[in-house]
Amino acid sequence: MVQAYILIQTEVGRAAEVARTIAVIDGAVEADDVTGPYDVIVKAEAPNMDDLGKLVVARIQGVPGITRTLTCPIVHL
Fold it and tell me: What predicted TM-score, i.e. pTM, was given to this entire model?
């Protein structure tokens, strides 16, 4: 299983709505609106990197109100 944090910037005033929408997407483990340079942080998981990429590009980036994402795969050292 591959896990990642997805840092999301949204249009002004849309963070809570974006987080609620993403929270119900299969593969999104947790979605929280936060303060700082990013508006929403999502913890996601998928069987492999290809499926993680598909989750981000096809499902999460398609959510209305998102302006930018940054995917940070989790590594266990």
Answer: 0.94
